[in-house]
Amino acid sequence: MRLFRSDELLGIARETMEFVLEASEESHPDEYMGFLRTDDARKLDLDRDGQVITDVLVIPGTESNPTSASVRTHMKPNDMRAVGSVHSHPNGALRPSDADLATFGQGQIHIIVGAPYGWGDWKAFDNEGRQTTLDVLDVEVPDEHFFDFTQEDIDREIGEERRDDGGFLSWFR
After folding, report:
1. CATH class for domain 9-143?
2. Other CB atoms within 10 Å distance of the CB of residue 38
3. Given 18, 31, 128, 152, the catalytic residue
4. Where is the MPN domain positioned along the sequence (predicted)?
């Protein structure tokens, strides 16, 4: 395992971009808002150093309407994988507003998706609001699970605790 990751952003996974377009369309006529997260390119079987956007984090309590989306910033996790944001403009405008520019400093890349939310209806911007290129990559996005155990693991653990004659958990029985 490497101690330091390359900060070069190689692009966004096609599956992730499809999710962004669908989520934006489903939110219409209100804005959609999320934060972009990356995975190491080598984890995605790319033979290059760098990061690929593979995930969109939606913050609980995000409020949106046809002209804005607001996030409860205290709910945003301190995430080493976060690289920027994505939001929609239901009016179809593919340029950042003054309010957008005020938040762009908090990330490396920002995507704006406009109605009607097709493949040609989005643009990427750097943290200063300048349009930039973001490649769409055909990589397999790993299935991630918030919990890395199954119900069978829980049942087995409970069964072992019941058979245990001592130990810390026996105090609570």
Report:
1. alpha beta
2. 28
3. 31
4. 10-131
Distance CA 21, CA 48 (A): 27
Helix ranges restricted to H, the chain:
14-27, 98-103, 151-163
Examine the residue annotation and report whether 31 is marked as an active-site residue of this protein.
yes
Unique residue bearing structure tokens 């390119």: 41
Q: How confident is the model at residue 57 (pLDDT cuts 50, 70, 90)?
A: confident
For the question of whether the overall pTM of this predicted structure is more than 0.90, the answer is: no
CB-count burial class (<10 Å; 0-12, 13-18, 19+) for 28: middle
pLDDT confidence tier of residue 58, bands split at 50, 70 and 90:
confident
> Per-domain residue ranges for the chain?
9-143
